[in-house]
């Protein structure tokens, strides 16, 4: 009954490990989708930043063109210095306004347009998702520690089973030696054959019980090894997921 109970416990533990493995795989898939969405948003932001840089470069080129035209036509437009000055001031003010707009667009990642405001909102949502991912990482860490404890307990149980197998093997050898000795005594003591026969039968039964127990113990050790392999595989997968989340 003890062996059957242990088998049931092992089966329940195996089922629970499979459920946890499926849950972990589902969560990994969800996190990968979130990472892909975040990467897409990041590419959009990089595109807007590049556009801002292009506008800034174009503004600088226009400033240089205006300065060059002003220098070339300064002598020819000596009579129109006042108008040119007013125009240059207006252009300078316009250039300053454009420069401030570009700077504000680069610093705040798009408050000048409604789409950029939407991107900021999405970034806030992504920050919340990152916080949620951090909570998941904490939960994974806790589960990882629990799995480590279970793995340690399984290893201790394996050591105990190995010790028990060794003890049973030694006991079996002792019984075999004792049985051989009884056979020798049986040849020398014919008068006590009935009594010795009963003892031999009893020893054979005990030997059979020990053999059966040894077979069951070996089978249990094999199952424990399988559970250890399964736990190590899950532990490696958890380490991979944690490493991926830390990189994010």
Automatic annotation (TrEMBL):
Keywords of the record: Coiled coil
Chain segments annotated as coiled-coil in the UniProt record: 52-94, 151-185
Name of the protein in its database record: CCD62 protein
């Amino acid at each position: 009954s003890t062996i059957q109970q242990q088998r049931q416990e092992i089966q329940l533990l195996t089922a629970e490990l499979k459920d946890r493995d499926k849950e972990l795989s589902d969560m990994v898939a969800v996190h990968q989708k979130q990472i892909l969405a975040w990467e897409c948003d990041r590419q959009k932001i990089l595109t807007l930043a590049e556009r801002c840089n292009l506008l800034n470069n174009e503004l600088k080129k226009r400033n240089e063109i205006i300065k060059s035209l002003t220098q070339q036509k300064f002598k020819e437009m000596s009579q129109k210095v006042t108008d040119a000055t007013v125009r240059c001031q207006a252009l300078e003010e316009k250039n300053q306004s454009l420069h401030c707009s570009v700077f504000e667009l680069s610093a705040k990642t798009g408050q000048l347009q409604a789409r950029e405001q939407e991107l900021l909102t999405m970034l806030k949502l992504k920050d919340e998702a990152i916080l949620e991912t951090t909570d998941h990482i904490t939960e994974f860490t806790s589960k990882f520690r629990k799995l480590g404890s279970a793995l340690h307990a399984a290893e201790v149980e394996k050591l105990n089973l190995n010790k028990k197998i060794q003890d049973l093997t030694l006991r079996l050898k002792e019984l075999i030696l004792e049985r051989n000795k009884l056979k020798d005594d049986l040849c020398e003591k014919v008068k006590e054959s009935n009594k010795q026969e009963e003892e031999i039968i009893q020893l054979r039964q005990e030997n059979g019980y020990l053999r059966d127990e040894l077979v069951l113990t070996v089978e249990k050790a094999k199952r424990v090894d399988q559970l250890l392999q399964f736990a190590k595989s899950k532990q490696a997968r958890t380490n991979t997921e944690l490493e991926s989340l830390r990189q994010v």
